[in-house]
Amino acid sequence: MVAQVEESRAATSRRPVQRLINSTLLYLTVAVVSLIIVFPVYWMMISTFQPSKYILHFPPPLLPQELYFDQFAELFSEHPIARWLRNSFLIAVMTMLLCMALSVLGAFALSNLRWPGRNLFGLFLLVTQMLPEVLILIPLYILYRRLNMLNSIPSLALIDAAFILPICIWILKGVFDNVPAEVLDASVVDGCTELGALWRIVLPLSAPGLAAVAVVAFFFAWNEYLYAGIMLSSGDFMPASVGLSTLKAIAQTPVEQYMAAGLVFSVLPVVFYLAMQRYIVSGLTAGAVKG
Amino acid sequence: MNERVDADALAGRSSGRMPPPRILRRRYLLPFALALPIVLYEGLLIVYPIVQGIYGSFTRIELASSAATTWVGWDNYERMFSDPAFWKVIRVTLLFTALVIVVALTVGLLTALLFNRPFRFRPIARGMLMMPWAIPEVPVVMIFIWILSPQFGVVNILARMLPGVTQNPQWLQVPELAMGWMVLISSWKAFPFYSLVILAALQAIPQELYEAARVDGASRLQLFWHVTLPGIGSTLELLVVLAAIFSFKQFTIIFLMTGGGPSGTTETIVIRIFNTAFRFYDYSYATALGVAGFVVSLAVALVFILMQVRRTQESA
């Protein structure tokens, strides 16, 4: 055994050429794969930051020829994109607040308390998260129509929060699970109520998890298209996801403005999602896989 | 530990035919009080509409007039099962879902294996890998509409390199091409998530296993087959089900790019439900389609839950 290990070690160090080829191949593969994956994003940038004369040409140049920054001002003056973004922001903030309040309570019950029905509660949340949104769209639309709740930003936030709340609870549950049970027990023995322990011990220890929930809820509502398009059909309340989908490239909107709109809308979610990816993944897999 | 003692003590006392002790009521009051608002909230906005939808599928719904809904029994379902268009939708849905599972998971697995190896700039490369996942669906649609433009789309440069292609293809007008792009775009958007989950599973495989196998003279392929694959097997199984759920739900990309066309070749059931309700205003038939979709997704969700339960039992 020992002799074999030494032999194989010697073998690897004896072949530096082989190692060089191997690592070159690795870097080459990584480069090619990354290029394919990122190309559509790269192309959005290229199409945003160049004057259209380069991009409205076939075949288009693959490398940027000239930088151009007026498209953002044109975009904001020619389309009500500021209002769309404001509407998206309002929907997202309301969804976020509602989700944070409810998910703290739900996650505490699911993670730190022991009670009959706890598993059932967890399963209930899991199933509601897995149903396609469109299945509930028609009955909800009919309900909202009857209750006169169409074309209202808070009404849409109520729906968005209902869809994302289960995932938020599962994310927070994973975070609350890390609070040692002994610490909680000790605080309860010391005369602290369970809710007091949640407020004074669990929450301060779970700040990153709370931030993750805020991010997930905010950007779910920010990105949501289907319900926003049906429930907010009036132009005044149109959020950016719906507004952007009405833009027509070339025919009605110059390409650099069209792509700039996509870029403006994507910057925030990309930054925050990348920062919070671990938590989001663990929530989407309901903690089955530690992300 | 503490809990078991408590539970035994409680069981001992409550067996003495006394009313449930105060402590029991106090203990369970809080969790129920915390869970109740959530159950009510989800019940009102998710469960109640589902029940309404099931009820509605047995009626004729007139939204425009104030006429009361009339009970029509199984009419909507009879129509659905005898409708060739419905079976076409089912075929398209199965094809789309299966293709996205295969493509997204294969790419996810390969990129995870690649990005699991140590190399410089790995954090940057991983950040780039996550980009498609972090960009919202509507901008993704905008990017690809532009890339696939028959007039100026950059993808035509590649297409023109193929022998026999002298004109830019109408990417979204040819049925096979449209379906292919729907699968590719959905997979591009979805695979980073699977890749990230598989990466986490790969890193949980103990290094000693690899070392031991190498000492025994295992080749690279054998290492993958006998160490890596068993190590991530249960994660992959779980991801197949999750991918089925996510791709079955896919709405925005297909709806905004093809709307289900050309001539229904990319019309999955979620698109069909939407079109039936909000293009043809046939709400009752749409709710019947919705119930069909609900049954399917509930079945898949149950598979996921059973797998979860099995996993937790194994790890316990």
TrEMBL record, chain A:
<feature type="transmembrane region" description="Helical">
    <location>
        <begin position="25"/>
        <end position="45"/>
    </location>
</feature>
<dbReference type="InterPro" id="IPR035906">
    <property type="entry name" value="MetI-like_sf"/>
</dbReference>
<keyword id="KW-1133">Transmembrane helix</keyword>
<dbReference type="InterPro" id="IPR000515">
    <property type="entry name" value="MetI-like"/>
</dbReference>
<feature type="transmembrane region" description="Helical">
    <location>
        <begin position="156"/>
        <end position="176"/>
    </location>
</feature>
<keyword id="KW-0472">Membrane</keyword>
<dbReference type="InterPro" id="IPR050901">
    <property type="entry name" value="BP-dep_ABC_trans_perm"/>
</dbReference>
<feature type="transmembrane region" description="Helical">
    <location>
        <begin position="89"/>
        <end position="109"/>
    </location>
</feature>
<keyword id="KW-1003">Cell membrane</keyword>
<feature type="transmembrane region" description="Helical">
    <location>
        <begin position="229"/>
        <end position="251"/>
    </location>
</feature>
<comment type="similarity">
    <text>Belongs to the binding-protein-dependent transport system permease family. MalFG subfamily.</text>
</comment>
<dbReference type="GO" id="GO:0055085">
    <property type="term" value="P:transmembrane transport"/>
</dbReference>
<feature type="transmembrane region" description="Helical">
    <location>
        <begin position="257"/>
        <end position="275"/>
    </location>
</feature>
<feature type="transmembrane region" description="Helical">
    <location>
        <begin position="196"/>
        <end position="222"/>
    </location>
</feature>
<keyword id="KW-0813">Transport</keyword>
<protein>
    <submittedName>
        <fullName>Carbohydrate ABC transporter permease</fullName>
    </submittedName>
</protein>
<dbReference type="GO" id="GO:0005886">
    <property type="term" value="C:plasma membrane"/>
</dbReference>
<dbReference type="Pfam" id="PF00528">
    <property type="entry name" value="BPD_transp_1"/>
</dbReference>
<feature type="transmembrane region" description="Helical">
    <location>
        <begin position="121"/>
        <end position="144"/>
    </location>
</feature>
<keyword id="KW-0762">Sugar transport</keyword>
<keyword id="KW-0812">Transmembrane</keyword>
<feature type="domain" description="ABC transmembrane type-1">
    <location>
        <begin position="85"/>
        <end position="276"/>
    </location>
</feature>
Automatic annotation (TrEMBL), chain B:
<keyword id="KW-0813">Transport</keyword>
<dbReference type="GO" id="GO:0055085">
    <property type="term" value="P:transmembrane transport"/>
</dbReference>
<comment type="similarity">
    <text>Belongs to the binding-protein-dependent transport system permease family.</text>
</comment>
<feature type="transmembrane region" description="Helical">
    <location>
        <begin position="223"/>
        <end position="248"/>
    </location>
</feature>
<feature type="transmembrane region" description="Helical">
    <location>
        <begin position="89"/>
        <end position="115"/>
    </location>
</feature>
<keyword id="KW-0472">Membrane</keyword>
<keyword id="KW-0812">Transmembrane</keyword>
<dbReference type="Pfam" id="PF00528">
    <property type="entry name" value="BPD_transp_1"/>
</dbReference>
<dbReference type="GO" id="GO:0005886">
    <property type="term" value="C:plasma membrane"/>
</dbReference>
<keyword id="KW-1003">Cell membrane</keyword>
<protein>
    <submittedName>
        <fullName>Sugar ABC transporter permease</fullName>
    </submittedName>
</protein>
<feature type="transmembrane region" description="Helical">
    <location>
        <begin position="136"/>
        <end position="159"/>
    </location>
</feature>
<dbReference type="InterPro" id="IPR050809">
    <property type="entry name" value="UgpAE/MalFG_permease"/>
</dbReference>
<feature type="domain" description="ABC transmembrane type-1">
    <location>
        <begin position="90"/>
        <end position="304"/>
    </location>
</feature>
<feature type="transmembrane region" description="Helical">
    <location>
        <begin position="28"/>
        <end position="51"/>
    </location>
</feature>
<dbReference type="InterPro" id="IPR000515">
    <property type="entry name" value="MetI-like"/>
</dbReference>
<feature type="transmembrane region" description="Helical">
    <location>
        <begin position="179"/>
        <end position="202"/>
    </location>
</feature>
<feature type="transmembrane region" description="Helical">
    <location>
        <begin position="283"/>
        <end position="307"/>
    </location>
</feature>
<dbReference type="InterPro" id="IPR035906">
    <property type="entry name" value="MetI-like_sf"/>
</dbReference>
<keyword id="KW-1133">Transmembrane helix</keyword>
